[in-house]
Task: inverse folding
DNA sequence: AATCCGTGGCG
DNA sequence: TCGCCAAGGAT
C-alpha cells in the first residue's frame, strides 16, 4: 500500500495489534478513561491495571469520589507513585461534580481547567472518550513523530507547541479516524518505536519513516541525568506516606520518626507533605491522611 | 525553563 | 548489582 499515509498504516496496524486494555473497551466512559490517563502518568501499564479496576469499582462516577474523603483517594492510590495525582484526581472529581453536573466535560478548555489535567491528559480524554480530532502528544508520540515525520532520533525533553502541530499534521481530517490514529501513534511509540531498541522490522510505517530513511542517526544533544532516588526527599516522603496509608488511626510523630534517621530531612519531608495537602497535622502531634475539612 | 514529585521491574 | 526509566503536571 504505497499510497497509504502514516496515519492510515498506523490505524491498520493498531486494529490487529493493539493490546487489550480495559480503558480501551467500548464500555469505558469518559470518567474511566480520565482515571486511566491520570494513573498512567509516569506509571507503567502493568502496575496501573489492578489499581484501575479497584478504583472504578469503588468510585464508578466523579460524584462518588467527590463524596468521599481525599485521604481515601490517597490510600486507594496505593503504591502507584506520585500520590499528588490521587489528591488532584479527587479535586478533579469535586470540580466535575460541582461545575459540570457530574459529567466529565468534553470541551478542551474545560478539561484543561481541571486539577491534574494538563495538555496531554485533556487531549487524551477529548480524543479517546469523545472521539474528537486532537493531537494527543505524550512521550511516546513525540518520539514516534520525531522519527517518522521529522527524521530525528527523539524529541526534546519537554513538550512544545511544535510537537502538537507536527502531530496534528499527521491526523486524518475525520475526527473518528483522527482519534484512532492518536491511539495508534501512542501504541506504536510504546511497543514498536521504543527509545532503546526500536523494532523497525515489525513497524507498519517503516517505509515512510524519515528517521529510517536518514539511516537512523543517533541522538545528538546531552542526555538528561535522572536524579538518584535513594536519599532524596522523595524517598523520605514515600516512606512517611506509606506509614499513614497503612494506618487506620491517626499516627503519633514517633511512628514517623523511625522511618528516617536524619531529623532535618525528615522534618522537611513531612512539612512538604503537609504543605501539599497530602497529610493533615492534628492536635497532640498526630498525623493522618487528609479528611477534607 | 528547570526542578520537583514515587515506585518497582528489568537488563 | 544498580542504573534506568514508565501514557505528565505544577510551579
Result:
Amino acid at each position: 500500500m504505497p499510497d497509504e499515509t502514516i496515519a492510515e498504516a498506523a490505524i491498520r496496524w493498531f486494529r490487529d495489534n493493539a493490546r487489550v486494555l480495559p480503558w480501551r473497551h467500548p464500555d469505558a466512559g469518559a470518567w474511566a478513561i480520565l482515571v486511566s490517563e491520570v494513573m498512567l502518568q509516569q506509571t507503567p501499564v502493568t502496575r496501573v491495571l489492578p489499581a484501575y479496576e479497584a478504583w472504578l469499582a469503588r468510585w464508578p462516577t466523579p460524584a462518588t469520589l467527590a463524596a468521599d474523603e481525599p485521604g481515601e483517594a490517597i490510600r486507594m492510590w496505593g503504591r502507584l507513585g506520585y500520590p499528588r495525582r490521587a489528591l488532584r484526581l479527587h479535586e478533579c472529581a469535586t470540580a466535575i461534580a460541582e461545575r459540570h453536573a457530574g459529567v466529565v466535560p468534553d470541551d478542551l478548555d474545560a478539561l484543561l481547567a481541571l486539577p491534574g489535567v494538563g495538555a496531554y491528559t485533556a487531549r487524551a480524554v477529548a480524543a479517546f472518550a469523545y472521539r474528537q480530532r486532537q493531537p494527543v502528544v505524550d512521550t511516546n508520540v513525540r518520539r514516534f513523530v520525531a522519527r517518522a515525520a521529522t527524521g530525528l532520533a527523539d524529541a526534546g525533553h519537554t513538550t512544545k507547541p511544535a510537537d502538537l502541530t507536527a502531530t496534528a499534521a499527521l491526523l486524518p481530517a475525520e475526527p473518528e479516524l483522527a482519534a484512532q490514529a492518536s491511539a495508534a501513534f501512542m501504541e506504536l511509540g510504546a511497543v514498536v518505536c521504543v527509545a532503546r531498541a526500536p523494532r523497525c522490522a515489525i513497524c507498519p510505517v517503516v517505509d515512510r519513516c524519515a528517521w529510517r530513511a536518514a539511516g537512523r542517526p543517533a541522538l545528538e544533544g546531552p542526555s538528561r541525568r535522572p536524579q538518584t532516588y535513594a536519599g532524596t526527599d522523595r524517598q523520605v516522603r514515600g516512606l512517611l506516606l506509606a506509614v499513614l496509608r497503612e494506618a487506620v488511626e491517626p499516627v503519633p510523630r514517633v511512628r514517623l520518626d523511625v522511618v528516617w534517621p536524619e531529623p532535618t530531612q525528615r522534618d522537611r519531608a513531612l512539612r512538604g507533605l503537609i504543605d501539599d495537602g497530602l497529610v493533615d497535622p492534628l492536635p497532640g502531634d498526630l498525623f493522618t491522611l487528609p479528611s477534607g475539612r
